[in-house]
């Protein structure tokens, strides 16, 4: 582990601070700039600040970085969470999970509400039609239900259970 030497830089305040010191009596006019982060602080908090800077150097996730979308300074640990809610990030393109058409993230909810594939899937669910997880076709006839309550085509699930002894959806072990 590399040890970082911190150089103390003392900055004396100008005549305005000297005037304030005379008014307050206890005000210190010596300031120190941290060599790690360039922040200027009073001398009495310098040692605490240096310990915090060293902790940030040890833990790379605590560094701040600029969001490339909106320009805000974000702690690296929370950068991905910020991208989920970043207003500037809503103009990236994503794919609709139903029809796989590329749309802007900001328009995705509106697109899904009008997506014919989504509406068709919703209608099938209202009618009680489910998809077979093995062949991905609608299960209308020749249904077979496992003891975990999942429904498949009889032929599909029989062929599946010859190779596997578990449900293709929930992985629960099935009895013969």
Automatic annotation (TrEMBL):
Organism of derivation: Paramecium sonneborni
GO CC terms: nucleus
BP GO terms, sorted: ubiquitin-dependent protein catabolic process
GO molecular function, one term: zinc ion binding
Superkingdom as given in the UniProt entry: Eukaryota
Record domain RING-type: where: 132-171
Keywords: Metal-binding, Zinc, Zinc-finger
Designated name of the protein: RING-type domain-containing protein
PANTHER family, per database record: RING ZINC FINGER-CONTAINING PROTEIN, SI:CH211-59O9.10
């Amino acid at each position: 582990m590399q040890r970082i030497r911190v150089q103390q830089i003392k900055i004396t305040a100008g005549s305005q601070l000297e005037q304030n010191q005379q008014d307050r009596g206890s005000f210190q006019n010596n300031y120190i700039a941290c060599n790690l982060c360039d922040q200027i602080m009073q001398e009495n908090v310098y040692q605490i600040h240096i310990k915090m800077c060293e902790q940030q150097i040890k833990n790379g996730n605590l560094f701040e970085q600029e969001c490339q979308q909106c320009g805000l300074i974000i702690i690296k640990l929370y950068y991905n969470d910020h991208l989920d809610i970043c207003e500037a990030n809503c103009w990236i393109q994503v794919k609709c999970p139903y029809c796989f058409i590329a749309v802007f993230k900001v328009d995705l909810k509106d697109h899904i509400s009008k997506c014919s594939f989504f509406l068709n899937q919703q209608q099938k669910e209202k009618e009680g039609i489910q998809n077979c997880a093995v062949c991905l076709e609608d299960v209308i006839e020749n249904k077979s239900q496992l003891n975990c309550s999942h429904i498949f085509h009889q032929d599909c699930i029989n062929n599946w259970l010859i190779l596997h002894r578990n449900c293709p959806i929930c992985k629960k072990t099935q009895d013969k």
